[in-house]
Amino acid sequence: MSVLVNKDSKIIVQGFTGSEGTFHAQQMIEYGTNVVGGVTPGKGGQLHLDRPVFNTVEEAVQKAGADTSIIFVPPAFAADAIMEAASAGIKVIITITEGIPVADMVKAYDYIKHMDCRLVGPNCPGVITPGEAKVGIMPGFVFKKGTVGIVSKSGTLTYEAADQVVRQGLGITTAIGIGGDPIIGTSTKEAVELLINDPETECVVMIGEIGGQLEADAAHWYKASGSKKPIVGFIAGETAPAGRTMGHAGAIVGGSDDTAQAKKRIMRECGIHVVDSPAEIGLKVKEVLR
């Protein structure tokens, strides 16, 4: 079992023929991901990477049966791409694009919130179910199949956590990079909930960072759920000065509850196994799974 993407997902690439779309689509195809085509307005009817190009997402849904999309559209047009995918019936919309204007994301978030779809990102590394589907920009070779789910705001820490878990002789069910922007489609809580409810996932790694309430919300949900599946947590940004953006646009400490120390305290109070360094993630996962 997996969440969000698997070998049966029919994936299209929005921004297919651009340089980023081409490079990462090629990597996804080489990994074995079921990429059924792509969308570039005005280039419909062509072949690209031996896959059909469509003018619209609706056409890709009708002709290729697409149910999942990954977006490499430039920031000025990416919110429109999200809304187009949702209105065409795409169920999982993974948005890699960084730098989408916040006002555009407010509009897109509001537009899709009552639709039957799930948005992951923007400004995220994507989602991978090892051995089945890599829908993102992560290095596929790092991820091996197993029973540990990963939820992370940080792209590089997603790969680091996966590498550590694999080095301990374990593996990953699905890794979800939720993205670090102020407005994202899938929250930490929602991603953690997906993995806690996945029968094959025995442990979840939750990687957060300073700024916002996402990790605290996830921790409170976990405590209230009564789940016996262990969560190993890490918060990046311990030494960040208050009020300064650190890497991600969402990583701004606004108050006393936004700091790494406060988040770690809340997580511990809710029964999460918190580590103080990303170097400890793999060992802690192995320990809690014994």
TrEMBL record:
InterPro entries: Cit_synth/succinyl-CoA_lig_AS (IPR017440), Citrt_syn/SCS-alpha_CS (IPR033847), CoA-bd (IPR003781), CoA_lig_alpha (IPR005810), NAD(P)-bd_dom_sf (IPR036291), SUCC_ACL_C (IPR005811), Succinyl-CoA_synth-like (IPR016102). It is an enzyme of class 6 (ligase). The active site is at 248 (tele-phosphohistidine intermediate). It catalyses: GTP + succinate + CoA = succinyl-CoA + GDP + phosphate; succinate + ATP + CoA = succinyl-CoA + ADP + phosphate. SMART domains: CoA_binding. The keyword Nucleotide-binding applies. It comes from Arenibacter nanhaiticus. Residues 4-100 form the CoA-binding domain. This is Succinate--CoA ligase [ADP-forming] subunit alpha. Succinyl-CoA synthetase functions in the citric acid cycle (TCA), coupling the hydrolysis of succinyl-CoA to the synthesis of either ATP or GTP and thus represents the only step of substrate-level phosphorylation in the TCA. The alpha subunit of the enzyme binds the substrates coenzyme A and phosphate, while succinate binding and nucleotide specificity is provided by the beta subunit. Heterotetramer of two alpha and two beta subunits. Belongs to the succinate/malate CoA ligase alpha subunit family. It holds the Pfam family Ligase_CoA.
